[in-house]
Amino acid sequence: MDETLAKRIDALERAAPLIHRAAPEARQIGARLTPLRHGIAWQTRHTGVCLVFHMLDMPAFAPSRHALRRFVRCLALFACSAFAARAFAAGPDPLETLRKEIAQAIAKGDLAPIRHVIAMHAAAGPAPFEVEVAEDDGKILWPARPSSVTPDEWAALKRSKLVYGFPENHHLSLQLMDLDEDGKRDLIIESYLGGTGLFSGVSVHRRVGNQFVGQKKDPDDNSFYTINGRGSDQEADWIRLGGRVYLAYRNGDYGYDELFLMRAFGAPLNEVDGLVVEYRYRHRVSDKVLHGEYSPPTPLDPELRRALQTALDQIGDTPAQDNGGKFPQCPLPEGMTEDDSNWPWFGPGHYTFGIVADLPVQVGTQCHAARLIAYRSSYLTDRDQVPTSLSYMRSPDDTEQEIEVQTKRTPVRVRRGHFPLPTPD
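Request: output the structure for the sequence above.
Response:
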């Protein structure tokens, strides 16, 4: 940083006590003088008067008592503008605000702290409305104007070149909300993209002049974010914190939830700071052996049930690793070697579930095998009950059995984290 500028900023920081006495409106600004080192220009209009302060060449920044008095008088007048006060104050860290609120919810025994805290900050806006998309060319077939949309916004919508993924069901969900605090409502478009992951894509358009302008130019990559409906555990909500609108995006799996914030028209990011909520799990073996959707369950042998419960108690708080290799396994059956062993073998897994653990099950003098899996995309209805399943085999040539397990999760802590943004698979 330029030495002269540094001296001027140091003088400005020393002026903080004077600013506190100058006007009540200036107290908040005076407390935030240190960030001025980054070099910012401010401008506001108040009752027809335009005040411009530029740190690089404003004489009032010189380190003299007279200059400081002049600056205090200007700053007090500047602080009278609500707009200036908002622009001048950085506000609290939104992630830290959420971290503290989630931590408080966990301390009170809340089983769904993320969902309840996010709901407290929901950004108000009109309900979305649907439009149909033509099957042949993908163009929107505009219906009559909804009452929640102004004539000006409706005209802007119809003249804009909107960017969206082609919806598998030929419908789009549109919503208007001010996403950048400029006083004009912007456009959110959600489309169901389908595929094996049952994806939905959401694009955002900023109101610019008499039209809405898409965030991305690439027609093959136009989503601001996606939701994987099968194979991931994801949710997204628009929230308001400190007067700004953010997308709160949750990406979870067995053992944890990641939560991060994104601005609709911010610079694209590959990695982001966020929060991680960690969970403790308790698994209880039921007394039922499952036989598929069309056959009734049968009773589970009590001795085997006790053995399976003992095995599950080993898991504790171990997160899913998709390899099941955290625990020692049974000795190889007689006649098997390391080279040709397929024991225990429950299949290669699947994108719709995570492998929590492969476990040895001691039944009398016999060592059998079990695998616990946790299904993804299933936390949306009951946040504390996690759908899990236990597969069990006595030997390599035995028929695999599916045994019902009831799993309960409890949030235990929340911490800051840094991780890559999830990408569609």
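Residues 333 and 395 are 8 Å apart (CA to CA).
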